[in-house]
Design a protein that fits this description.
It comes from Paracoccus kondratievae. Pfam families: LprI. Keywords: Signal. This protein is mainly α. The termini are close together.
Length: about 150
Amino acid sequence: MKPLAAAGLVALLAIPVHAGDASGFDPAAIDQCLEGAVTQGARADCADAGMEACLTYTRGKYTGDDPDFPMANCLDASHQAWEAQLTTLYEAALAAGGTPEGLREMERSWIAFRKALCASAGVGKEGGDLAHARCLRNETARQAALLMELGPQE
């Protein structure tokens, strides 16, 4: 397999995942981080892209008494944006040809792996829900980065 062409990937990343929402998370931060990684020719760790701005926004708007709410809000919004990014990349890989059934099998296996891995994240620990949410977001971001490196088989 060969990596997706940088020019094609940059064009793919120019399409917004979805517009920002009431969470304060801007999915464009993910696009910018990934585009920078493609431009530099290296895989960047973009899982946290957009989190600081989201946390700043949420902390300024939230008036409740749950200290974990801002982080939970931003992790959820970030995870949703990464899921949309992963879906876009997955559909592009399927459209590029190669072995679609192999790609589908890989994704099904990965989903089972992520579910098992994240189910135990933070179990019995304070902040366990945040650990679970962070695990889901991080693993989805990692899978998107890996999927970006896949291309059609020659």
